[in-house]
Design brief:
The chain is mainly alpha-helical. It has 15 helices and eight strands. The chain has a two-stranded antiparallel ribbon. Helix 8 (128-135) crosses helix 9.
């Protein structure tokens, strides 16, 4: 119904005046003794929005004091203790004024009865678990005393004192004839006997370390020796996949052989990505080799 066809309410002027002051429908109906539906019709006819939800909330007897304490940064619990207002009421005022929650200061921890003994053991280099077992205290308390006195834990101290990755590599190599290097450290437990290096809880490839020492960058793909010495880890002998393919392509061209084919292989693999040259300089597709290996593995698993 539009404003031209509806019949104006007898108290429409008074209703509009109270709507302009922000009163809600229930409050206007109670004040003028008219129905809430009549107030809704006046709002709708004049295109006026509904009153905000805050108009339904009655002011707290200590509203001004609550707002002042909120501005001063007190917590809800402290305001409740001072004014007696419910925490829900205080939280609503805090949200309406967009005041962030107050930061509650953390009480200082009481000194541990055996703090002096724990501190002495920590300064001597003991670990949290060992000190807790020896003194019969909680390891959480030991960790707190370590943190409060800025004493590094055992792992951090060992990490700082440990040699670098390159130093560990040098400790496990031995030079042989021809400038090659033999690995004297750990090897893989499988039949390959591939050299491996354990450093700070992780396993590394000595060949990859040697490659980075020579080039200053991380390798791409598998790093292997391109010399005749099996598992040689000399920096001058190891290459990653792009370097290995570049060397083999150069040797192929020196022998007067044509460049490897381009495009796609019969199985649809892109040779620009999967094209390879083996040690005999014959081209092959790494994608086909990978698919064949997966098919054999799946056949062994299902059989």
């Amino acid at each position: 119904m539009t404003t031209e066809t509806r019949r104006p309410h007898a108290q429409e002027a008074q209703i509009l005046e109270l709507i302009g002051k922000g009163w809600n429908n229930a409050a206007i109906a109670e004040r003028l003794y008219c129905g809430k539906q009549a107030v809704r019709e006046v709002r709708r006819a004049h295109g006026l929005p509904q009153a905000p939800r805050s108009s339904w909330r009655k002011p707290h007897p200590k509203e001004r004091e609550i707002h002042q304490l909120l501005e001063e940064g007190h917590t809800d619990a402290e305001i409740h203790r001072r004014t007696g207002a419910q925490p829900v009421t205080i939280a609503a005022r805090r949200h309406a004024r967009k005041i962030p929650p107050a930061l509650v200061p953390r009480p200082a921890a009481r000194p541990h009865p055996r703090e002096a003994e724990i501190l002495t053991a920590l300064q001597a280099g003991g670990s949290n678990n060992a000190i807790a077992r020896e003194l019969g205290v909680d390891k959480v308390a030991v960790a707190r005393i370590r943190r409060d006195n800025c004493i590094p834990n055992t792992f951090e101290r060992k990490r700082a004192e440990a040699p670098s990755l390159e130093e560990r590599w040098r400790q496990n190599v031995r030079e042989v004839d021809g400038g090659h290097m033999e690995w004297t450290g750990h090897r893989a437990t499988n039949s390959s006997g591939t050299p491996v290096l354990r450093f700070l809880g992780s396993w590394y490839s000595p060949a990859a370390i040697a490659f980075k020492m020579r080039t200053g960058r991380d390798p791409q793909g598998q790093v292997r020796a391109e010399c005749d010495v099996h598992h040689c880890v000399a920096p001058a002998c190891v290459e990653d996949e792009p370097g290995r393919q570049g060397i083999r392509l150069t040797l192929r061209r020196l022998q007067g052989l044509p460049d490897p084919p381009t495009g796609t292989c019969p199985d649809g693999h892109d040779l620009a990505v999967d094209g390879r040259l083996d040690a005999r300089l014959h081209p092959y597709c790494e994608g086909c080799k990978r698919d064949t290996s997966r098919a054999k593995k799946q056949a062994r698993t299902t059989s």
